[in-house]
Amino acid sequence: MAWNEPGKSPGKRNPWEKRSGKPTSGGLDELIKHFKKKFSSAPGGGASAGLVVAVLIVLALLWISTGMYQVKTGQVAVITRFGKFQRIEQVGRSLHLPWPIEDDVVINVADDEQKGQMRIVVSDKAFIDVVYALRFRRSNVVEYAFNVRDPDITLDALTQSAIRESFAQKNLGTALSASRQVIANQARDMIQSALTASKAGIVVNSVEVIDVRVPTEVKSAQEDVTKAQSENSALIARAREYASDVRPKALGQAVVEQENAEAYKSGRVAQATGEAEYFLKLLPEYQRAPVVTRERIYLETMESIYKNSKKIVIDTKGSNIINIPLEKFSASVDHEGNDKPVANSTVSAPGRSAH
Question: What is the spatial distance between Cα 344 and Cα 72, in angstroms, rounded to a whole number?
Answer without folding.
Answer: 127
